[in-house]
Amino acid sequence: MLDALHDFTMNVLDPIGIWLGLVLAVPVFWTWWDVVIGRRRRRQRWFDQVRREPGQRPAILLVDLKSNMDIRVQVENFRMGEEGLKDIPEERIARVFRDKPLTPEAIPELLYEVRDRSAEFMRQGIDTIHLFYAGPLAPMAMIGASFGNGFRVLVYQHQPGSGGRYENWGPLKPPQ
After folding, report:
1. Residue 57 CB contacts under 8 Å (≥ 6 apart), including other chains
2. What confidence tens digit (pLDDT) does each residue in 50-107 have?
3. DSSP per position, 38-81
4. What is the pLDDT of residues 104-151, one digit of tens each?
5. Torsion of CA 123, 176, 140, 86, to 10 degrees
6. In 3D, which of 72, 61, 146, 64 has the Cα closest to residue 108?
7. Cα R_g (the chain), whole angstroms
């Protein structure tokens, strides 16, 4: 009886188990590949697509906190050379400007002004903000946090030594 059970296990169940394991390994491996490699590829594709598309109703927000320089003309020249940005009408371009050095005490007023511009954009039905920023890093992080739940915000970085060129670094908030 024990020999018959052993023969049945070794000759019937063992090959079935091996084949079943091999068959089930294929979808498990396929799922792992999709999760690990496919997700990264989809994120990169989304990121590249967002960088190329200006939005249905785009706007431009210029935040100029450097007291010794005015980036408005430089951004305007860049904007006129960019396909997706040159069609944005003047009423959808806002500017936050400080002509004196920024201090920590001036941050609340700055953030209220940025929120006012954001509310104005919301009333206009804006879906994407192209953000050009010049100034210290800490206020930029605070401004970015204020846009965390609203619009799609594309951040532009000035490229030094490029003759006034800006580079689109992508969305402020990456995909989840």
Report:
1. 92, 124, 125, 126, 127, 128
2. 666 667 888 999 998 887 878 888 888 888 888 888 888 888 899 998 888 888 898 9
3. IHHHHHHHHHHHHHH---SSEEEEEEE--TT---HHHHHHHHHH
4. 898 999 999 999 998 888 888 888 899 998 888 888 888 888 887 777
5. -50
6. 146
7. 27
Query: Cβ–Cβ contacts within 10 Å for residue 68, how many?
Result: 6
Q: Which two tokens stand for residue 11?
A: 């000759």
CA gap 93, 130 in Å, rounded: 9
Encoding tokens for residue 87?
């069609």
Tell me which H or E stretch contains 120: helix 107-123
* Token pair listed for 15: 């090959």
Q: By the 8 A CB rule, do 110 and 78 touch?
A: no
* 140 closest CA partner among 153, 121, 152, 128: 153
User: What CATH number should be reported for the domain whose range is 55-171?
Assistant: 3.40.50
Q: Which residues pair with 158 in a beta bridge?
A: 166
User: Where do the structural domains in the chain lie, given as residue ranges?
Assistant: 1-52, 55-171
Name the pTM for this structure.
0.69
